[in-house]
Amino acid sequence: MLTNKGKYGLKALVHLARVDADKPTLIADIAKAENISKKFLDAILRDLKNAGFVRSWKGPGGGYALAKPAGDIMIGPVVRALDGPLAPIACASRTAFQPCDDCTDLNGCAVRLTMIEVRDAMAAVLDKLSLAEMSAKTENAPISLD
Question: Which of 54, 88, 126, 133 is the most buried (most CB within 10 A)?
């Protein structure tokens, strides 16, 4: 499940993708526009900067901007940078694999095998979706509660 950190990080990146890339955006402006705590957003943007997704300038005229074009930023690596592995359980993770304490047969565990399918399905979507494509999605899209 996507944490608030992941969700707010994506919202901040979408915000930055929709503004002038040559002009830094103040953290307060992003926080206000996206309804995110400034303190929490500051920590998130620091993580995004450390991961190479955003850059920042200090002082007057400072702020944040995307570190590369939105079309070159894929959503899967962003989510992993903020929330860790995509797998819903550790035994289904490719990068942070840990067997469950109660598991006696990794290859015969129906739960693990199902969660691997979930992980792969999530990765198939998120690793092929660019920030540009995500930011092009409209707020007026139909809402499905299925």
Answer: 54
On the CB side of 63, how many CA atoms lie within 13 Å of its CA?
A: 19
Tell which residue, 23, 22, 30, has the closest CA to residue 48. Answer: 30
- Helix boundaries (H) for 18-109: 27-34, 38-50, 75-83
Model confidence over 132-141: pLDDT tens digits? 999 998 655 5
The angle at the Cα of 82, spanning 1 to 111, to the nearest 5 degrees, equals 30
Residues 53 and 66: beta-carbon distance below 8 Å: yes
Q: Give the whole-angstrom CA distance, residue 25 versus residue 41.
A: 13
Cα first-last separation, the chain = 17
Question: What are the residues facing 25 on neighbouring strands?
Answer: 64
8 Å CB contact between 97 and 91 = yes
| Model pLDDT, residue 146 | 56
With a CB cutoff of 8 Å and minimum separation 6, the contacts of 78 are 9, 10, 13, 48, 51, 53, 131
pLDDT at 139: 57
